[in-house]
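Posting for a labmate who doesn't have an account.
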Amino acid sequence: MSQFFSIHPKNPQSRLIDQSIKIIKKSGLFIFPTDSSYAIGCQLGEKKTLDRIRTIRELDKEHNFTLICKDLSELSLYAKVNNQSYRLIKANTPGPFTFILNGTAEVPRRLLHQKRKTIGLRVPESPIISAILKALGEPIMSISLLMPGDSYPIADPREIRIKLEHAVDLIIDGGNCSEGLTTIVDLSSSYPEIIRQGIGDLRA
Protein backbone atom coordinates (compact mmCIF):
# COMPACT_ATOMS: atom_id res chain seq x y z
CA MET A 1 0.00 0.00 0.00
CA SER A 2 1.27 3.46 -0.90
CA GLN A 3 2.12 6.37 1.36
CA PHE A 4 -0.33 9.29 1.16
CA PHE A 5 1.10 12.74 1.90
CA SER A 6 -1.06 15.86 2.01
CA ILE A 7 1.32 18.65 0.99
CA HIS A 8 0.38 22.31 0.92
CA PRO A 9 0.10 23.37 -2.76
CA LYS A 10 1.74 26.78 -2.25
CA ASN A 11 4.00 26.25 0.77
CA PRO A 12 5.19 22.61 0.68
CA GLN A 13 6.24 21.25 4.07
CA SER A 14 9.98 20.48 4.02
CA ARG A 15 9.49 17.40 6.19
CA LEU A 16 7.09 15.82 3.69
CA ILE A 17 9.27 16.79 0.73
CA ASP A 18 12.23 15.05 2.41
CA GLN A 19 10.12 11.94 3.07
CA SER A 20 8.96 11.96 -0.54
CA ILE A 21 12.55 12.11 -1.78
CA LYS A 22 13.47 9.05 0.31
CA ILE A 23 10.68 7.05 -1.35
CA ILE A 24 11.55 8.27 -4.85
CA LYS A 25 15.23 7.39 -4.40
CA LYS A 26 14.26 3.82 -3.50
CA SER A 27 12.89 3.28 -7.03
CA GLY A 28 9.56 4.65 -5.87
CA LEU A 29 6.68 5.24 -8.27
CA PHE A 30 4.75 8.33 -7.24
CA ILE A 31 1.75 10.45 -8.23
CA PHE A 32 1.94 14.22 -7.89
CA PRO A 33 0.07 17.41 -8.83
CA THR A 34 1.22 19.79 -11.55
CA ASP A 35 -0.09 23.04 -12.99
CA SER A 36 -2.33 21.03 -15.33
CA SER A 37 -3.32 17.59 -14.05
CA TYR A 38 -1.98 14.92 -11.72
CA ALA A 39 0.95 12.99 -13.17
CA ILE A 40 2.75 9.75 -12.44
CA GLY A 41 6.52 9.51 -12.42
CA CYS A 42 9.77 8.17 -11.06
CA GLN A 43 13.48 8.88 -10.86
CA LEU A 44 15.42 9.08 -14.11
CA GLY A 45 16.72 5.74 -15.38
CA GLU A 46 14.50 3.43 -13.29
CA LYS A 47 13.66 0.80 -15.92
CA LYS A 48 11.50 -1.45 -13.73
CA THR A 49 9.58 1.52 -12.36
CA LEU A 50 9.08 2.80 -15.89
CA ASP A 51 7.62 -0.59 -16.83
CA ARG A 52 5.17 -0.21 -13.95
CA ILE A 53 4.01 3.10 -15.44
CA ARG A 54 3.54 1.44 -18.83
CA THR A 55 1.43 -1.27 -17.18
CA ILE A 56 -0.78 1.18 -15.28
CA ARG A 57 -1.31 3.40 -18.33
CA GLU A 58 -1.34 0.48 -20.83
CA LEU A 59 1.23 2.21 -23.03
CA ASP A 60 3.11 0.87 -26.02
CA LYS A 61 6.86 1.27 -26.38
CA GLU A 62 6.54 4.18 -28.81
CA HIS A 63 4.75 6.47 -26.37
CA ASN A 64 6.74 9.58 -25.47
CA PHE A 65 7.60 10.16 -21.84
CA THR A 66 8.33 13.60 -20.46
CA LEU A 67 11.31 14.82 -18.49
CA ILE A 68 10.08 17.25 -15.87
CA CYS A 69 12.82 19.76 -15.07
CA LYS A 70 13.13 22.34 -12.30
CA ASP A 71 14.10 25.11 -14.76
CA LEU A 72 15.67 25.74 -18.16
CA SER A 73 19.22 25.24 -16.87
CA GLU A 74 18.77 21.49 -17.49
CA LEU A 75 17.38 21.88 -20.99
CA SER A 76 20.57 21.75 -23.06
CA LEU A 77 21.82 18.66 -21.20
CA TYR A 78 18.88 16.53 -22.32
CA ALA A 79 17.71 18.13 -25.57
CA LYS A 80 19.08 19.71 -28.73
CA VAL A 81 17.70 23.25 -28.82
CA ASN A 82 18.29 25.96 -31.39
CA ASN A 83 17.95 29.66 -30.62
CA GLN A 84 14.43 29.97 -32.03
CA SER A 85 13.15 27.02 -30.00
CA TYR A 86 14.86 28.26 -26.85
CA ARG A 87 13.19 31.66 -27.13
CA LEU A 88 9.78 30.04 -27.56
CA ILE A 89 10.31 27.72 -24.58
CA LYS A 90 11.64 30.53 -22.38
CA ALA A 91 8.63 32.73 -23.18
CA ASN A 92 6.21 29.98 -22.09
CA THR A 93 8.05 28.45 -19.13
CA PRO A 94 7.16 27.61 -16.45
CA GLY A 95 3.69 26.63 -17.58
CA PRO A 96 1.37 23.85 -18.82
CA PHE A 97 3.39 22.98 -21.91
CA THR A 98 5.23 19.88 -23.08
CA PHE A 99 7.90 20.54 -25.71
CA ILE A 100 8.96 17.69 -28.00
CA LEU A 101 12.67 17.97 -28.76
CA ASN A 102 15.45 15.84 -30.21
CA GLY A 103 17.10 14.08 -27.30
CA THR A 104 20.80 14.06 -26.45
CA ALA A 105 22.96 11.12 -25.42
CA GLU A 106 22.20 11.96 -21.76
CA VAL A 107 18.63 10.71 -22.15
CA PRO A 108 18.21 6.98 -21.46
CA ARG A 109 17.26 5.27 -24.74
CA ARG A 110 14.16 3.73 -23.21
CA LEU A 111 12.73 7.22 -22.68
CA LEU A 112 13.17 8.32 -26.28
CA HIS A 113 10.57 7.80 -28.98
CA GLN A 114 11.91 4.63 -30.62
CA LYS A 115 11.69 5.90 -34.20
CA ARG A 116 12.15 9.67 -33.90
CA LYS A 117 14.57 9.74 -30.91
CA THR A 118 12.64 12.61 -29.38
CA ILE A 119 11.81 13.42 -25.76
CA GLY A 120 9.20 15.59 -24.13
CA LEU A 121 10.45 18.26 -21.74
CA ARG A 122 8.40 20.29 -19.32
CA VAL A 123 8.87 22.88 -16.55
CA PRO A 124 5.58 23.09 -14.63
CA GLU A 125 4.56 26.03 -12.47
CA SER A 126 3.94 23.97 -9.35
CA PRO A 127 5.59 24.59 -5.95
CA ILE A 128 5.28 20.94 -4.86
CA ILE A 129 7.06 19.34 -7.80
CA SER A 130 9.52 22.25 -7.96
CA ALA A 131 10.53 21.55 -4.35
CA ILE A 132 10.91 17.84 -5.11
CA LEU A 133 13.04 18.49 -8.19
CA LYS A 134 15.26 20.94 -6.31
CA ALA A 135 15.83 18.45 -3.50
CA LEU A 136 16.32 15.52 -5.87
CA GLY A 137 18.85 17.40 -8.00
CA GLU A 138 17.76 15.93 -11.33
CA PRO A 139 14.68 15.69 -13.58
CA ILE A 140 12.08 12.99 -13.21
CA MET A 141 10.43 11.01 -15.98
CA SER A 142 6.71 11.38 -16.03
CA ILE A 143 3.40 11.16 -17.86
CA SER A 144 -0.10 12.48 -17.20
CA LEU A 145 -2.34 10.35 -15.00
CA LEU A 146 -4.78 9.55 -17.81
CA MET A 147 -6.09 6.08 -17.13
CA PRO A 148 -6.99 3.62 -19.92
CA GLY A 149 -10.41 4.40 -21.34
CA ASP A 150 -10.66 7.82 -19.66
CA SER A 151 -10.96 11.07 -21.59
CA TYR A 152 -9.55 13.23 -18.79
CA PRO A 153 -6.94 12.74 -16.04
CA ILE A 154 -8.10 11.98 -12.51
CA ALA A 155 -8.40 15.31 -10.66
CA ASP A 156 -9.36 14.21 -7.13
CA PRO A 157 -6.53 12.79 -4.97
CA ARG A 158 -9.04 10.76 -2.95
CA GLU A 159 -10.18 9.02 -6.12
CA ILE A 160 -6.55 8.43 -7.05
CA ARG A 161 -5.99 6.80 -3.66
CA ILE A 162 -8.96 4.48 -4.09
CA LYS A 163 -7.90 3.38 -7.57
CA LEU A 164 -4.11 3.25 -7.30
CA GLU A 165 -2.96 2.96 -3.69
CA HIS A 166 -1.89 -0.65 -4.29
CA ALA A 167 -0.16 0.13 -7.60
CA VAL A 168 2.21 2.97 -6.60
CA ASP A 169 4.53 3.78 -3.70
CA LEU A 170 3.51 7.36 -2.97
CA ILE A 171 0.51 9.60 -3.67
CA ILE A 172 0.99 13.31 -3.05
CA ASP A 173 -2.23 15.10 -2.28
CA GLY A 174 -1.89 18.71 -3.37
CA GLY A 175 -5.63 19.34 -3.57
CA ASN A 176 -7.84 18.93 -6.59
CA CYS A 177 -6.09 19.54 -9.91
CA SER A 178 -7.41 20.60 -13.27
CA GLU A 179 -8.61 17.84 -15.60
CA GLY A 180 -6.79 19.63 -18.41
CA LEU A 181 -3.80 18.33 -20.30
CA THR A 182 -0.71 20.24 -21.33
CA THR A 183 -0.37 21.80 -24.74
CA ILE A 184 2.17 19.72 -26.70
CA VAL A 185 4.46 21.63 -29.04
CA ASP A 186 6.76 19.72 -31.41
CA LEU A 187 10.07 21.55 -31.84
CA SER A 188 11.98 18.61 -33.30
CA SER A 189 11.84 19.86 -36.90
CA SER A 190 12.23 23.17 -38.72
CA TYR A 191 8.93 24.71 -37.67
CA PRO A 192 7.02 24.55 -34.36
CA GLU A 193 3.87 22.45 -34.56
CA ILE A 194 1.12 22.18 -31.96
CA ILE A 195 0.44 18.45 -31.59
CA ARG A 196 -2.21 18.81 -28.89
CA GLN A 197 -3.99 21.94 -27.78
CA GLY A 198 -4.36 21.73 -24.03
CA ILE A 199 -4.82 24.36 -21.36
CA GLY A 200 -1.59 26.17 -22.25
CA ASP A 201 -2.12 29.29 -24.36
CA LEU A 202 0.95 29.55 -26.57
CA ARG A 203 1.98 33.20 -26.80
CA ALA A 204 3.09 34.46 -30.21
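Reply:
Got it, the C-alpha coordinates are right above this. The chain has a mean pLDDT of 90.
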